[in-house]
Amino acid sequence: MNTEPESQFEADPEAGAESGFEQALLPAQIHQAAGMVAVHLDTTIQDAYHRLESYARSSGRDLDDIASDVVGRRLRIESP
After folding, report:
1. Residue 6: is its pLDDT beyond 60?
2. Which domains does the chain have, with CATH numbers?
3. 22-58: buried (b, 16+ CB within 10 Å) or exposed (e) per residue?
């Protein structure tokens, strides 16, 4: 029997790879950009993060660069 308390950073297998500890390791600017995209598109943080990743892949740019442009209001991720 495991008596240790569950960590707040344990990954939820149903929430996707961006939950728990993995999400905490992302740079703050990517979190901020995902939050901005989530509010703009009225969606979840996970969906916003995936949209940022997709945009970065399709444009051939680094996710950090995309996040910087979103936070700096030089780029606006639109809904498909």
Report:
1. no
2. 28-71 (1.10.10)
3. ebeebeebbbebbebbbeebeeebbbbbbbbeebbee
Q: Which of 18, 23, 31, 13 is nearest to 68 (CA)?
A: 31
Tens digits of per-residue pLDDT, 43-77?
A: 999 999 999 999 999 999 999 999 999 999 999 99
Describe the crossing of helices 28-41 and 63-71 by its angle, rounded to 10 degrees: 60
- Alpha carbon dihedral 17, 24, 21, 62, in 10-degree steps, equals 40
Looking at residue 79, what is its pLDDT?
A: 87
Give me the mean pLDDT over the 21-37 stretch. 83
